[in-house]
Amino acid sequence: MDAEEFRVQGKSMIDFVAKYREEIGLYRVTPTVEPGYLRDLIPMEPPEYPENWKDIMDDTKSKIMVGMTHWQHPRFHAYFPSGASYPSILADIVGDVVGCIGFSWASGPACTELEGIMLDWLAKMMNLPPEFMHATPGSKGGGCIQTSASECVLVSILAARALAIQALKRKNPDQDEGAMLSQLIAYCSKEAHSCVEKGAMIAFVKLRILETDDEFSLRGGTLQKAIEQDRAAGLYPFFVSTTVGTTSCCSADNLTEIGPICKEYDIWLHVDAAYAGGSQICEEFRYLFDGIQYAWSVNTNANKWLLTNFDCSCFWVKDRYKLTQALVVDPLYLQHSHSEESIDYRHWGIPLSRRFRALKLWFVIRIYGVEGLRKYIRNHVALAKSFENKVKQDPRFEIMNKVQLGLVCFRMKGSNQMNQKLLSTINASGKLHMVPASLNDKYVIRFCVCREEACESDMVYAWEVIKAVATEIEKTEVG
Ligand code: PLP
Prior knowledge:
The mean pLDDT is 96. By secondary structure, this protein is α/β, with parallel strands linked by helices. The chain contains 14 helices and eleven strands. Strands 1-7-6-5-4-2-3 form a seven-stranded mixed beta sheet, sandwiched between helices. The structure holds pyridoxal-5'-phosphate. Pyridoxal-5'-phosphate is lined by residues 80, 148-150, 193, 195, 243, 245-247, 272, 274-275, 301, 313.
C-alpha cells in the first residue's frame, strides 16, 4: 500500500469506524457464533499473493464483526467500561505511524517525556500526593504506563520482594536466598483481583488472602492480626495489595486503617484502583482514597474509566529507585549519552518494547478537558444510582453491594440456581450482556454502566428486560 492508497483507504476506514459506532445498536450485543466458527470462514493457508483492500474489508464486516462482543454497545453492562473514544483512536494512529519503541529516552524523547508529563497531569487530576509526581521538587517518585493492572501489581510485588530480600540479607548475610524467599508473605483481601494471586505465584511468594467486613472492605484489624501471627511463625510480611473498586462489587479497602500498619512494619502498600481510580478526578469520590498517602504504589487503568483505549494502565510509585532496583539490566546496546539526566522506562517494567501510549491520554484529556471527564464519570454514577433505585423498588430483588460508583450488584431473592438461570437467559437473548460474581457464596449479577454516551433510557430498557425475564423464570419455578 503506498501513501496515495493509504489516503483513500484511510478515509474510508474512518467512515467505517464512525458508522460502526453510530449504528452499533443494530448489532446484537453478543454474537451467536460457536467456538471454532472462524476456522470455517478463513482459509487455512496464508495468501501467497497480494489481495485487494475491498475483499479484506468485506471479510472484516462479514466474518469478524459478526463474531464480536460489542463492548461499546448500549446493552453492554458486563465487566467494567473499556475506553474507546474518538480522540484516543486518532491518537493511536499517530503513535502507530511513528512506530517508535520507546524503551529509553533516546529511543523516543517525546514518547518518554510526554509519558512523564501525562502521568503528572493525571496524578494532579486524581489529587494523588505530590510524592507520586515527577515534577515535584525533590521527588523520587513518578508514573509510567504499563500494559495492564496485572503488570502493575506484578512489578510492585517484584520490587517489594527485592527490597525484602535485601533487608533479610542485612540481618543474615549467610542465609541462602531461597530460604529467605520462603519466609516472605504478601496479603490481599478475598475481593482482590486474581492478578494478585497470579503475581504472587509468578514471584514465588506466599499470599495470605484475608476476610473482609460486611461491606467487602479489608480492615486494619484483620491485617494486623494476620501480620502478627505470621511474624510469630517466623515469616516476613513484605507486601499488601489493597483494592479501591473491587472487581466483584466495587468495594474499597480501608486505607486509613491499613496504611499506618504497613508503615509500622515497613511493608510495601500497593493500591489497585484499576477501575475506580478514574473517579478520583471528582472531589465527591475522593473519600475512597482516604489514606492514599501511605501507599508506595498505585495503579489505575485509564483504559477502563477515562475514555482511553486499551492499553493504558497508569502506575505511580513514590520511590522510583525502589522499583527499578528490582528491574534494571543494562546492556551496552541500550545505553545512551543522556542516561543520567533522563528516564529510561524500560527499567520500570517487564517488557523492553513500549508503545507511544501517552499520546492517547494527551489527546483525551485535551479534547474532553478535566471537566468533560468529570461529567462522564458523574453521569455513570448517577445512572448506576438510578438503576439501583429501580431494583430496590421491586420486592423480588435485592441489592448486594454498596453502590458508590458505576457498578450495581443485584440478585433475585432466591437460590443461586435461579439467579444463574436469570442471567443465562438474559445473556442468551442477546438483549443485554452482564456477568456474574460471587459475594459471600451468593451468586450475584453485576450491572455496570459502561458506554460513553450511557443515558437513562438505557437503564429503563435494561431493567425492563431483566424484569420480564424474571417474571418468566418465576412462572417456570411455580409451574
Ligand atoms: N484489578 C482490578 C480491580 C480489576 O477490576 C481488574 C480487571 O477488571 C484488574 C485488576 C486486571 O486488569 P488488567 O486486565 O488491566 O490486568
